[in-house]
Amino acid sequence: MTPTELQQAYENHADAVFRFAFRITGSVAVAEDLAHDCFVALGRGSAAYNPEKGSLRVFLLGVTRRLAARLWRTESRLDPLGEDGRFVEPTSLETLEIQDAVAACVGALPPLQREVLVLAEYEGLTLREIAQAVETEVGTVKARLHRARENLRKTLAPFAPARRNPTA
Amino acid sequence: MKPLDDEELRQLLAQWETPPAPTRLRRRVLSSSPRRRVGIPRYLRIRTSVAAISLAALLMLAYWAGAKRSPSPPASTGLASFQPAKNPNLRIVRITENEQD
């Protein structure tokens, strides 16, 4: 990839890559490093993009996801990325603002559920595109997405505007 | 508490905004010069690497086999260092005619 092509890819997709990295890691610093590594891999050719296999955006989100997964595996060797990772509800949600509560609840999802939820809800990818990005079957994506939404329906229930301020 | 419905969940999720990408990210990405490998396709790079490693292994094997097989050469094979005996202590033995018969 030429420097011009890399710059073009950066201008078009850096925001999406950073957003995705931030939402699955919860850290600006880590998201910045992941986005950096993603584009550097693209520029150096170590992440080979094939236009016939899908859009560049989906490809870059997939690369970012792989980098994040590698990070998770490195940092939590005793806590492997299971298919049905346990969902630990965040504590003391009552004191949080809605935005922080949403971030905390999404961040508390098991990684495999979190990534498909973020790709679907925030990046607007189709099931097929998500399956391509996370390198799995569409059926598996559907199942993970369903479980993620079920978890969030319960934990975020107290924050629904109509329920939070019934008098309003 | 009753779980959220789809619309409520969507509305809540939409409230989570992300900070913008740090401005230094652009500089970091675009200043890290990509290592261009101009004109050498990936498959050829792999084949070249495999060939180089195989050649090195063959050379090492040949060297090892040769060193094991060939005996150590004599110290000197020429006459340049030839020295006549200093005290030959010669004894001449004559043969008489009777002994010859």
Mean pLDDT of chain A: 86
* Total beta strand runs of chain B: 0
Question: What kind of sheet is the major sheet of chain A?
Answer: none
CATH architecture descriptor text of the largest domain in chain A: Orthogonal Bundle
- Biggest sheet record of chain B: none
Structure write-up:
- The complex is a heterodimer of chains A (168) and B (101).
- Helix content of chain A is 67%, strand content 0%.
- By secondary structure, chain A is mainly alpha-helical.
- Chain A starts with a helix and ends with a helix.
- The mean pLDDT of chain A is 86.
- Chain B has helices at residues 6-13, 23-31, 42-69, 97-100.
- Chain B has a domain at 39-68.
- Chain B has 101 residues and is mainly α.
Annotation keywords:
heterodimer, A: 168 residues, mainly alpha, Arc Repressor Mutant, subunit A, B: 101 residues, 4 helices, 49% helix, 0% strand
In short:
Chain A is 67% helix and 0% strand. Chain A is mainly alpha-helical and 168 residues long. Chain B has 101 residues and is mainly alpha-helical.
Topology, element by element:
The complex is a heterodimer of chains A (168) and B (101).
Chain A: H1 3-25, H2 28-44, H3 56-75, H4 98-108, H5 111-121, H6 127-134, H7 138-155, H8 161-164
Chain B: H1 6-13, H2 23-31, H3 42-69, H4 97-100
